[in-house]
Amino acid sequence: MWQRFTERARQVVFHAQARAASVGTKQVEPEHLLIAMTDVPECMAAVILERLGLRLDAVREEVEGRITIKESYAAQDMTLSPAAQKAVNLAYEEAKRFKHDYIGAEHLLLGILREQTGIAPQALAHLGVTLEAVREQLQQMQHKGFTPEEVPKLQPGLESRMAEIAAMMDAEDDKRLEELRRQEELLSLDEAVKFLGTSKPTLYRLLGQDEIKGLKVGRQWRFRRADLIAYMERGPVAVAAAPKEDLDMELAFFDQQLSVEETDTSGDPEAKTIRLAHKIMQLAIGAKASDIHLEPNADDFLLRLRVDGVLQETRRLPSSTRESLTARFKTMAEMDINEKRLPQDGRIPVRHEDKDFDFRVAVIPSMYGEAITMRILARQDVLIGLDKLGLAPEDLRQIRDLMHQPNGIVVATGPTGSGRTTLLYSCLRETADAEKKTLTVEDPVEFALPYTTQTQVNKRGGLTFPTVLRAFLRQDPDILLVGEMRDGETAQIAVEASLTGHLVLFPLHTGDAPSALLRLLDMGIEPYPISATVKGIVATRLVRRVCDGCKQPVDLSGEPTLGYIARLAAEGGYEIPDGAVFVRGTGCEQCRGRGYRGRTGLYEVLTMTEALAEAVLRRAPVEELTKLAVAGGMRTLLADGIRKAVEGQTTIEEVMRVVTVSVG
Ligand SMILES: [Zn+2]
Q1: What is the distance in A from the centroid of ligand 1 to the CA of 380?
Q2: Is the pLDDT of residue 153 over 90?
């Protein structure tokens, strides 16, 4: 009940009671309340009086000058005088009038002014304070809330009166609520949040900006369903629509890029924006882009596509299109379009020419508005067969052998975007069948695999990689895939699982295969279990393929670089044949002048040999591990790249660019 009166208002009443007692009356009169307001200078009423140009001591003097002092009382057993009671009731009315769900000193001041009889209104009138002037001040002032302070206990008489008023307010709220409910359907704040598909902070902000109409019933917000629907229908319109001419110009650009003749120039800006968003996605898919980047600048909205691992400037859209286009992508990704100040994530499933794509959308606020990044995942690419990854025949055979091991560990390693996920999925897709129990734990689950139980971790819910992995061991599995291997605990469980008769697959983030052995040691796994359980490690990289449309032979014979390349290849387990010819793309229509089209993989397949196992036991350095692995039949990433360059699939420059990039 007590929170109905602000801490300041309670302080004012307490001071008033002391004032009244000091001047010899047992009843708190409105004038005592007024003096008390000047005793509590932080209260809103005092601030209002000051804003009206009055000094608080002058106000006090004015009122005190009118009070006749009798013999003084002890401040006890005080009650409100009938006039003060009326002033408090009127204060309550004023609070309602301002749609405040509390009574503050400012409302008491208004109540005193409205009560009109007695000393206080007289003094205020003398000072030139009118009801309207106080109301106006209150209107102008932003309510910042009140700091809760320890307030002395009020006397029982006053306390019960204030409690009565609070109870009255509650009862009136209930009555009003009941009445409203009878009239129309009302939603609570939680229901409204759900209905709008937004968050509480956003709804509060929308209320603050008058974007949404809400009814404050006492302390509770209620929403008319009709108001919410009206807001949602208005929603997209609230986003600044781009001028038609700008949209037409952009649509024409994308039509030209997509080589389609679109004669349809009809439609409102909204329909055109939807088409534009669609065409941007279409262009990205057509260009085989892995990512779409939309970045707001001072003067434009830059569209870049990442194709074959390299960002390319595609279009500078006019800034006028930014807001509506961003809202469109956010709507498609089921994000809250009204939330523009926090990062958001979402996904857009797209079906294009019988293929399924998953656009992973991330929006972040930036200086000139929201920036959007979309990662494009093609289901077909992830679930591609092992034989289509560009693996050399002997590498393919080795990987298939690894996947048929009854137990042990198989690692795919490489930097992010090196194709290791695709490799792991392809392995599972080929191996998981009706005769094997296959389980995966991922974050997030990328794509559904046949004959596989896939579990997504939920860290907040306590479903972590280690907990899921432990639970998996009770599921009688044959093959386990751990989507992420970042900590020693998960690694330890993976090793234990492989020791107890399961085949465990996981990715690591190292530059090459031998380094993965050292990474496991770094993660706290003892040398012996590593040498005993790791069956194979495959390092991966993606390189751009030379464009078939403009591929030209390059003769390197006699050039000093050839000797260098030949030496690197030999060290990595590959001998360049005599008379080898390299290639280069000169640029053509098909590759848009870049000389490359599409990508293929480079692989380094390490299989555990006795010599390697022995080297792991004595924690040998990476150079030695590499030498032993090559001696055991491994071809390094560089050697595999050079071989693919000799085969005319890629260029020496591309192999050097991709492979020599070291990763931590
Ligand atoms: Zn070309």
Answers
A1: 24
A2: no
